[in-house]
Batch of 4 targets.
Target 1
Amino acid sequence: MELIRRWRELTEKLDQASVKLLAVSKYAPDDAVQMLIDAGQSDFGESRAQQLRDRAMRWPHCAWHMIGPVQKNKAKYIGRHASMWHSCENLETAQVVARYVKERSSEQSDAVSPLPVLIQVNIADVPAQHGIRPAAVPGFAADLMKIDGLKLAGLMCMAPKGGDAAQAFQALSSLRETLLNGCFADVGSLALCMGMSGDYEVAIGEGATMVRLGSTLFGGWDVRHQDV
Ligand SMILES: *Cc1c(COP(=O)(O)O)cnc(C)c1O
């Protein structure tokens, strides 16, 4: 079982660094997801809202993280089914997601348990990349914290294509410090979700608390690499 062997190696390495593994299953078939669940993996990342919904309904005991761009008309799937939303970059969409989070809580007839949200940061400030510009993050975070049903839980970024990953991850880490030393001291802790298959070791070196791994974990199971 190559998949399970890779998963064991990766989790061992990540556990030593106290870093959480998000298994990015967006291109992986259900069989591969099931194998990882059987092995003990609990957190999965999806980039399409409907697939997240389908898998969250099929495997409700796992945590399903939304890591892709969210259109307002798909926001209900995130509000209803996501355990964490990593790619928040728009307040209007956030309002809609929050509405469905509150609905979910009232159906379960308990107090509203807010959805943890990470702000996606366009850390290298590259035009046309997803995410909030670094300078705008404190203001965005303040607005986000006013939305009932959501809870600011950290920052997420992708290294710029062809750019300096270490520099980008350092910048996200110091942005978190800025927030924690500023008006956000009372949020407690803020996750740093950064690092993918090609740069997760760099990200861990810069203080990542969570990495998002797809191809290096799923390998040949990843449908992008079926010919490997
Ligand atoms: C697909 C994806 C990943 C995983 O990418 P790999 O390079 O396959 O590990 C991580 N983060 C986001 C936002 C993604 O869309």
Note: Residues 24, 26, 47, 67-68, 158, 196-198, 212-216 surround pyridoxal-5'-phosphate (CB under 6 Å).
Target 2
Amino acid sequence: MAEIPYKIYLSENEIPSAWYNVRADMKNKPAPLLNPGTGEVLKASDLYPIFCEELSNQEVDNDTKWFDVPGEILDFYKMYRPAPLVRAYCLEKALGTPAHIYYKFEGNNTSGSHKLNSAIAQAYYAKKQGLKGVTTETGAGQWGTALSMATAYFGLDCQVYMVKVSYEQKPFRREVMRTYGASVTPSPSMSTNVGRKINEEFPGTNGSLGCAISEAVEAATSQEGYRYVLGSVLNQVLLHQSVIGLETKAALDKYGIKADMIIGCAGGGSNLGGLISPFAGEMLRGEASYDIVAVEPASCPSLTRGSYVYDFADTGKVCPLAKMYTLGSSFMPAPNHAGGLRYHGMSPVVSQLYDDGIIRAVSVKQTEVFEAATKFARVEGILPAPESSHAIKVAIDEALRCKETGEAKNIVFGLTGTGYFDLVAYQKFNDGVMEDYIPTDEEIAKSLASCPKV
Ligand SMILES: *Cc1c(COP(=O)(O)O)cnc(C)c1O
């Protein structure tokens, strides 16, 4: 076998031409979405008022294994894909580990993260349906940025509700979105019913993804020709993100590398779900086994400390109910800089795979995440996003463990994005004033009590 290059590139025509739907291989399917008012199972057509029709169909389809990637989306993918799978030779050397470390780098586009993979798909289906525009929420700003790039490409209007704390801390992300033509409103705002209500209930709130989702849904359903789009959690988003895992697998196969451990950070579960899909599929079909690890922040630990129950997807309780590992929709994460990992719940697909023992989960503290990020940046060159650095932390720990045992394990992790817009967080870390916030059992129990009884 040829020596493994620093970067394993695929060619343009090796970009996957179909997305893989891991649900088709799951014996225990993720639980269906429910109507928040009646508790009834939602069919695709019930979702049409909120989501585009094709996306609604993808959302409820647990059987179709492969979905063709439309040519227009493939053309867009070609502008920034295939993404390289990088052998972290310098990190291995710095750690003195016999382990082989690989990372799939998704930060190679202007929005700086994997979110563009689904944003372009969602914008395409909105355009195809003849819509005027889309509404959405954004936490740290990566999703809004990705979506604004995608809507600009297809000539759609884009209205973004941005979690207030990020709107204030990340003015540069806001300006990128506006440059791509999106309008950006801090959430909770006073321009929607639900925003006014949340502002009344929690005066001075920093906002949360759950609030911003409620506002964006209200904005979509109250304007003609608009639908709501979401950057994570949903089955359709994991489907689009399977492009990450399919490329990773193709690159590994090219050099005959068998991954032992696959690590992804988990906020809503989309990059993790996409990265692991083809590997989890092999496990579900009994063809291979992998140690798959979801890494979440100790400040927002839905898998490791939440409950697997039906919950509201948003604070305003307007969205369908989803069965997921959750901390309760009223959970208000501390102002944590892992902005993209602040959601109270976890993708239903990832939740089910976790419940079935196909994947495991760990939580890590913010300061140790930034230590890992700094170590990585200094040897591998890339300034990682704080979210991605959760995966780096666990990869480094495992590589150091291999140093003790002498195992030449193949460790693969998802490097979901770059951290150029997260320099306020890096500044706090460099100044030694970053804190580790960990919610108490009482806080979690209190917010879990707000879950609906179904
Ligand atoms: C949004 C984001 C995440 C977390 O979202 P998932 O849906 O869990 O993937 C991770 N990394 C980066 C860089 C992000 O922007």
Note: The domain at 7-14+81-112+241-448 is CATH 3.40.50.1100 (Rossmann fold).
Target 3
Amino acid sequence: MTENKMLRVPRNYLLYLCVVAVFGVCWLWLSRIVPRARVPAVGTQNNGASFERWEKEIRNETLGFQKILCINLPERTDRFDAMRLAATASDMDLYFVDGIRGEMVSDRVLPLGAEKVLLSLGQRGKWRAHMDALLAVVQENLTTALIVEDDVDWDVRIKSQLVQFARGASVLTQPLRGSRPGFADPSFPNPNTKVEADSSQFEIDMADAPETVVPSDSPYGDSWDVLWLGHCGTKFPEAGSWPSTPLGRAVFRNDDTVPQTQHLGAYSHLAFEYSTDELQQTYPNHTRVVHHAAGTSCSLAYAVNQRSARRLLYELGLKKLNAQFDLMLSQYCDGKDGRQYHNCLTVQPALIKSHQPAGLKSSLSDVSTDDDDGMVLSDPFTNHIRVSTRINLSRLLEGTPTLVDSFPDDEPPTNFDT
Ligand SMILES: *[C@@H]1O[C@H](CO)[C@@H](O)[C@H](O)[C@H]1NC(C)=O
Ligand SMILES: *[C@@H]1O[C@H](CO)[C@@H](O)[C@H](O)[C@H]1NC(C)=O
Ligand SMILES: *[C@@H]1O[C@H](CO)[C@@H](O)[C@H](O)[C@H]1NC(C)=O
Ligand SMILES: CC(=O)N[C@H]1CO[C@H](CO)[C@@H](O)[C@@H]1O
């Protein structure tokens, strides 16, 4: 009897141990898998850095950059005043950099190649002004800066749009968290791994995005060179034409700050504006996509960091001048025309666009003046920006609660050409 009992106890005990061990393993496994799948990317802890902290900084007066530099020709006091007020209305802090008239830029200071490029006076001035802005970033040793031109506009909700942009940028360029190695975009950082057969693997639906490591250097990620937030148009890269550019797209659906597709056209009086056809045809209404820049035009607003400011100053200021400034910036991003590829992120529709005040059309630009003279624009206009800061400026300054949506849902496209 006693012998039996003594034999049976350890056997039960072993069984009990087995059951506990199996439960334990299951529990460990579940606790590793389940939270990783369910916890949203926003707000997770990582090495003391959290996305909440970054989100707070994106909403600060300099939009999560160390400074915002605004290029303004001193004689364009109209634009200086308007930008100053619009920034105040958005609780933003601008630091002005003097623009340069083309006449002031002599042939002697232009880099190699300039003799073959016919830059207009306006384009010469623009080139020098952007070089000066980049120089300021280098001289002041700024970690990051957003450089904007002085005729731009943005939605009154720009800060939450930038929080969204930062999430997209992180998903595209920050490593995945947990034990899964690599990146959410299989073509980043090495686009040689592009698998052309199945393009869906480059689409990341941000409603169900994997968790990525919270950036440590900037709210927008640790590996970007340029964030091209304001442009006249950009393309979704494809493997054939953009061999160095990763294909990932961070897709935000149901973003009601995006105008419906019937409003996303390009307007004939906007010389450099190009169409968003691909966005319109590929995605449903109210979709915004963060992706790698490809063939981007107009340098309305772009962020740089210390490293990229130095490289840009060297590349476009000293080494070679072979086009107008924004096209060279695009070459720098795309790795084309003898320049190396760099990691540039952008967004469609753009978050910052050029604003056209009511009045003489020739006041629109310092760059092209030829055919606009004498034409009057009766209403102020900013393409693709729904609740425009510039258009609603006096309401914002008066504190009027209702603001005007320039592109209401379910309405036919506004005809701004008349
Ligand atoms: C805003 O946040 C950025 C990024 O952390 C920081 O560099 C900058 O100094 C902040 N700006 C202000 C005005 O606090
Ligand atoms: C520039 O800033 C970085 C970090 O922000 C710092 O480590 C470096 O010493 C600074 N360089 C100079 C010359 O001040
Ligand atoms: C977007 O909404 C408008 C107006 O309701 C509609 O005419 C259009 O077909 C929609 N576009 C898409 C891509 O669903
Ligand atoms: C489009 C539009 O109507 N915008 C308005 C924004 O607010 C100002 C000031 O009240 C109006 O003059 C604009 O018409």
Note: The chain has one domain: 51-398.
Target 4
Amino acid sequence: MIPVNEPLIGEKELKYVTECLKGGWISSTGKFIEEFEQKWAEYCGMKYGIAVSNGTVALQVAVRCLDLESHDEVIMPTFTIISCALAVIYNGCKPVLVDSDSETCTMDVTQIEEKITNKTKAIMVVHIYGHPCNMEPILELAQKYNLKIIEDAAEAHGAEYKGKKCGGFGDISCFSFYANKIITTGEGGMILTNNEEYAEKARSYRNLCFRKDRRFYHTELGYNFRLTNLQAAIGLAQLERIKELIEKKRWIGKMYTERLREIKGLQLPTEKDWAKNVYWMYGIVLDEKTNMNAAEFAMRLKEAGVDTRPFFLGMHEQPIFHKMGLFKDEHYPVAERIAKQGLYLPSGLTLTEEQIDKVCDAVKKILGR
Ligand SMILES: *Cc1c(COP(=O)(O)O)cnc(C)c1O
């Protein structure tokens, strides 16, 4: 079976982790944490980095830093991971959804303005499968209506919009370093910002809101969302070769596209002329005219030894949110279609050309070519 993803861990990761183990700095204090925070912030063109335990809590803390009032609204794409909606809901606010752009699968920027009300305080931008959102129209709306931008760049390490790195656009930006992300710490996340006040708050929330002036005295409620030095050691080693990792992802993307381009009824990932796509996952969408949905396609691919993953199911189609009275009777046709018809092919950093050939042959055979 060709796995959908496999992390690429090298000698340097081992060396740095060994250094932690031998030195005894295995918790959330240690030199790798600060170095990873600084270097990641620098890589993305931001001032402050705050490492946290995963991408989900990075989003939760990011929303909290904005100091929103309960029932304030945050506009976000329906087509994303539930972490985005949870971050808004756990802060007592309301997610307001927009559909996806059918070509890039990122949020359809033409649908944002009509969703803005006097309660709207922020837009949560999510780059999808390695392709950036169309940022300029979003930034213009943010300026016009005085909205904050929360950027979720978990799937877009090193991706660029008009030459600027994803994660460098938000008032506050979030990353995940889960094992399937382009650089990984196993579990892990980071918040980036240029705003010193947000950085201070995020550091405090991450660490139980211990006060600097008096340690076990608390004036706010915090969390233990700390990353360990061990994890940061892996992250730093990964970051030191991110260029090579991104080149590999882009190579995988190119290899797939060359081989699948001619197949009718199959929509492949794109790269808009304003974008650098890092092809985090190579997502394909079957035309409904093929009379096959992604679930059936995935099953047939599995029989051929190819592992895949389904696309996100939109937030407006989640039973838990209906139960909470959210998004009832809302419809987003693009997100609904790609959720039903989309899947991603093996896209891991260990993938070989031979495996790509095998995957593409299986795809062609199933689609009758
Ligand atoms: C992976 C991911 C997250 C969540 O990150 P975890 O580290 O798994 O909590 C959030 N947003 C997006 C877009 C992701 O792909």
Note: The chain has a mean pLDDT of 97.
